[in-house]
Amino acid sequence: MANEKSKAKMVGLLLNSPSVKSLVQEAAVATRLLKHKWNVVHGYFYVDGVTGKTREVDIFATQIWTRNAKPDNHRLNLNLTVECKSLKDFHLVFSETEGSRDFFLLQGNWIGWELSHPNILTKRLSECGVPESVMAQVMKQFEEMSYPKETMRAAKLHTKAPPAAFTASAFRETNIGGERDIDSSVIWKASQALQAAVSSFKKTNRDGDFDAIRHAVDFVRDIKSLAPVETIAREIGRRSALIDLYHPILIVESSLWRLKAASLISLPWCRFVHASLPGATDWWIDVVSADHMTEYFDSLTRYYRSALSVSATL
């Protein structure tokens, strides 16, 4: 009997611990996303693009949208990167940011964006083995394949994030008696972790694009009858039909508040932005109260389905 009581006490302590509560919350998020037909990985491991170390994102969820087109169908990998944190007895108070609440681009990877850095692109193509004798032709083909008729090839799949009812660039993390500074802030650390993860995903995809071009160059070398420019351009065309976009989200077990004048208004979720210049957004995440997680993901999924269904199929 004593052992049973001891075990029950231990179970109670574990279930109320921040780590297990976070795990329970992660499982609830995964279950909700699965209901909406997202492809979900609970505990997604990846290689950090800067340190080379293996790291983890709590939830990684993907929906693949395609659009019929010639010569290659366009494809969007729409990815949600989600962190879950427990902040029991803490409150998050946000101060509103002036400016647009409607236009927030998603971070992403598309090979055509490399054209904005022609010197770096030329260097990468050279590293892939593209001969100097055909580099100018390949660069010309690169632009034509990525921007046919001067329009981004995957433009109809390049959706933006849903509007946010409230955006903020300043916050306080407090239990009323005190507050956490920026270095110990759970929100700040989670935002940085999500940013590092998305940067690593983008690097992996970008490297994959150029690996495919390298394979095309090797193919040309092995089969002498192939025209090098056309073969390389064909692979660039395939890659320019693909786009990856990322929506970063933090689910937090805490009360969220909006500071307005001298009063506080409860928030279900808000968009927290990193701004270095007035009107400029370097990075953003959606911060969602765990109590409103279900309605948030229901609304988010409806938005993307509505935005993408006019031009693509799931």
Beta strands, count: 9
Judged by helices, strands and strand pairing, the structural class is: alpha/beta
Fraction of residues in β-strands = 25-35%
What is the CA–CA distance across the termini?
A: 55 Å
* Biggest sheet overview: 5 strands, mixed, barrel
The helix fraction, in percent, is 25-40%
Structural commentary:
The chain is an alpha/beta fold and 314 residues long. The protein has one domain. Helices cover 39% and strands 30% of the residues. It contains seven helices and nine strands, in the order H-H-E-E-E-E-H-H-E-H-H-E-E-E-E-H. The chain has helices at 2-15, 18-35, 118-127, 135-146, 186-222, 228-240, 293-309; strands spanning 39-47, 54-67, 74-96, 107-109, 167-174, 242-260, 263-267, 269-274, 283-289. A five-stranded mixed beta barrel has the order 3-5-8-9-6. The chain is elongated. The model has no long low-confidence stretch (mean pLDDT 87).
Feature tags:
single chain, 314 residues, alpha/beta, five-stranded mixed barrel, elongated
What is the element layout, followed by pairings?
Layout: H1 2-15, H2 18-35, E1 39-47, E2 54-67, E3 74-96, E4 107-109, H3 118-127, H4 135-146, E5 167-174, H5 186-222, H6 228-240, E6 242-260, E7 263-267, E8 269-274, E9 283-289, H7 293-309
Parallel strand pairs: 3-6, 5-8, 6-9
Antiparallel strand pairs: 1-2, 2-3, 3-5, 4-6, 6-7, 8-9
Short description:
With 314 residues, the chain is of the alpha/beta class.
